[in-house]
Amino acid sequence: MRAAVIGSGIGGLTAAIALRAGNVPVQVYERATTLAEIGAGVSLGANGFRILASLGLGDRIRSVSANLRRIEFHHWRTGEIFCQHPMGDWYEERFGGPFLGIHRADFHHVLLAAFDGTPQLNHHCTTVEETPDAVRMTFSNGRTIDADVVIGADGVNSAVRDDDTAPVFSRMTCYRGLVPTDRIPGGDTLDLTFFLGPNRHLVAYPVRDGSLINFVAYVPGTEWTQESWHTRSDPASAVAAFEGWTPQVTAMLAAAPEVGRWALYDREPLRRWSTPRVTLLGDAAHPMLPHAGQGTNQALEDAAVLAACFPDFARYEQIRKPRTRQIQLGARANAACFQVPEGRPTTDRNARLTTLPETVAWIHGHNPLDLP
């Protein structure tokens, strides 16, 4: 049975690797014309890592990542730590895998090597037509290609997704960037670090074995609506958005050689992901806001369950949809939690953060390879 994967991101490549491990012939089609080094950091939890370990990639992923030793929450103006929890060895023992910070490009290189082949580049899928015997894909370069089954891993604006609802704008944008660790005051002490303030927050963590700090700075607003990895902004704009914040934040933003900026979108949970010959994974199936740190991890879980259930797409969807829906909606709620006004709302939020390890245990401790 010939499988086609649309999209060579982390979820699409992992699905292709897992399917090949099960002796399924698979080809990957990618809209980009080159595999350039784009993106910034990715947080990889135990639930995602165990998928990679099951494919024999655990050691390789560890070697290009930073193992995060703790999580800290800081006051936006003073920089004072008001809540922290251990990670590192404690997290790995508790949840069965590490919590890593990894550059997306490094992650992608590991997966491309494991795929042992080059995705078909310059193949932007525009339509998918299913017949009783095959699926016909049409690409913007003029080609039409048939496969037995098609897996849409082509993101929030998926062409494979059979749904006419529009992406939902969160009324929030983010600045993202990478800064050499030695250019940030106290940069070598940063692990998974949150700076929480009214109406905005910043998350930072090391990647590339600690030599770089990845940051994501979230601000409200509707004037910026572009959603693209390639969109750039002036670092001075990011600094201005966090005027009055602790110097560690403003110095981090000012030291960025370049800053990406994009608007944050998700979609309402889908009622149906699959037909007998077509299914979805990752952001194509359940695009979620980044406030749970689970977009990449859920795509990895999808890939593993899809390969285990293949070609029974109905079973795959039945297993995955309830979990991804809960995380997807929870990610929406987290944005408000991180950006509450000062006073009683902050006090209540900070109290909830003291129980964070137990609150997220159902996410990080989950093993999608234990199929029902």
UniProtKB/TrEMBL annotation:
Keyword check for Oxidoreductase: yes
InterPro entries with a match to the protein in the record: FAD-bd, FAD-dep_Monooxygenase_BioMet, FAD/NAD-bd_sf
Regions annotated as coiled coil: none
Domain of life: Bacteria
Domain FAD-binding: 3-307
Cofactor(s) listed: FAD
Entry keyword set: FAD, Flavoprotein, Monooxygenase, Oxidoreductase
Name of the protein: Salicylate hydroxylase
Species this chain originates from: Actinoplanes couchii
